[in-house]
Amino acid sequence: MSEIKARELRSLSDSALRTKLGELELELSIERRKVASTGVASKVIKAREIRRTIARINTILNEKGAKS
């Protein structure tokens, strides 16, 4: 997964952002299990990128004033 820029995320609709958020949360839980079982540093970096992207999406949703 590559880093998604905020500029790209702002062009998406609220429903598309929520869908992407759900996908990323699922991917993050999978990565956390991989890190816990193996402890490989590269997976830690990937998990960090996913967390940051989730934070970006939540920030953009709050800026748009989207309701949960």
Please describe what this structure looks like.
- With 68 residues, the protein is mainly alpha-helical.
- It has one domain (6-63).
- Helices cover 79% and strands 0% of the residues.
- α2 (14-38) runs antiparallel to α3 (41-64).
- The radius of gyration is 13 Å and the shape is elongated.
Q: In brief, what are we looking at here?
A:
This protein has 68 residues and is mostly helical. It has one domain (6-63).
CA(first)-CA(last) distance: 26 Å
Structural class: mainly alpha
| Number of beta-strand segments | 0
Q: What is the CA-atom radius of gyration, in angstroms?
A: 13 Å
The topology string of helices and strands comes to HHH
Overall pLDDT metric: 88
Poorly predicted segments: none
Shape: elongated
Number of domains: 1
Biggest sheet character:
none
Helix content: over 70%
Q: How many helix segments?
A: 3
Strand content: under 5%
Can you tag this structure with a few keywords?
68 residues; mainly alpha; 3 helices; 0% strand
